Amino acid sequence: MTRDTAAYKAKVTDAFNEAAAIYDRMGVEFFTPMGRRLVERAAPRPGERVLDIGCGLGATLLPAARLIGPAGRALGVDIAPAMVEEARREAGRQGIGNVEVRVMDGEHPDLPARSFDLILGSYSVIFLPDARAALARFARLLADGGRIAFTSPVFARDTFPFLPPMFTELIPLDLLRHLPESWHPEQLHRQLHSWLEHPADLTAALRRAGFTDVRIADEPVPMTAASGTAWVDWSHTQGMRLLWQHLPGEEAAALRTRLVTALDALREGDGPVRIEVPVRYVTATVAR
Fold first, then answer.
1. pLDDT band at 182 (very low <50, low <70, confident <90, very high)
2. Where's the Methyltransferase domain (predicted)?
3. CA within 20 to 30 Å of 238's CA: 221, 225, 269, 279, which one?
4. 3-156+186-225+277-286: CATH, from 3.50.50.60, 3.40.190.10, 3.30.200.20, 3.40.50.150
5. For residues 126-135, average pLDDT
6. How does pLDDT run across 2-30, given as a tens digit for each residue?
């Protein structure tokens, strides 16, 4: 692992460790409906062995565990120990007993070959510094005929990663001067996301990794927030936290006001903020 890769993973781990207690619990609905939809597309079957890469609090892991039933086994891995603890507690709260959660670097899963029937990853593959190489490792973990299913944003150049397109106009580009150069959207796009932008490139990457029957579908996921303030508070618990952490207090306050005002303008009366977020769903089968 290079020094830059180690530093990147440390930042991601720290960000999600600090956010774990409130992650996806701020009155904003997005990761849960997206996770449910991914599980619907992946269609886990009773008795299957499921691996969830970057499981977070279990938005994908737990619905999958319910479908595979007591004869199945679901393992969730996450690089952030605090996320793992929260996911374990959530499985207990929901009374789901066929789930195990471990701290593990999802890019290099230390797991036996051919030990899973289905691998899931909801908005997690996008964080891997060399996801295309990781896909080949995932293929080796799958039994013959095993499947992979994951989601990513519908990436485009000159937009902020992880955020719906409307936010590119709301976040002034001059704020990027506070980010390390490697965290600029164009740099992140080039380093991590360019292969995800065009379906042909994504399909080619999966085939090189050992998959076939690649299917890609872009669908909107409705994001709802009680208010603009609720959305901005929630943004501190997910990928955008990496921007907030680098902003000086005055500029963070100005951005907060700008976002709250624009988002509240989308509300009808006292109703919630509703944003359609384009999400890419990818499924494939291991080629053996």
1. low
2. 50-146
3. 269
4. 3.40.50.150
5. 90
6. 666 777 677 666 656 565 555 555 678 89
Which residues have CB under 8 Å from 152's CB, separation 6+? Answer: 123, 125, 126, 193, 196, 279, 280, 282
Q: Where are the domains of the chain?
A: 3-156+186-225+277-286
CA–CA separation, 55 and 102 (whole Å): 10
- Asked if pLDDT for residue 176 goes beyond 80, the answer is no
**Quick one: average pLDDT of 31-59?**
96
Q: How many CB atoms lie within 10 A of CB 286?
A: 23
CB 30, CB 162: distance < 8 Å: no
Write down the pLDDT at residue 246.
84
Q: Which amino acid is present at 92?
A: G
SS3 (DSSP) at 58: coil
| Residue whose C-alpha is closest to residue 91's, from 108, 73, 115 | 73
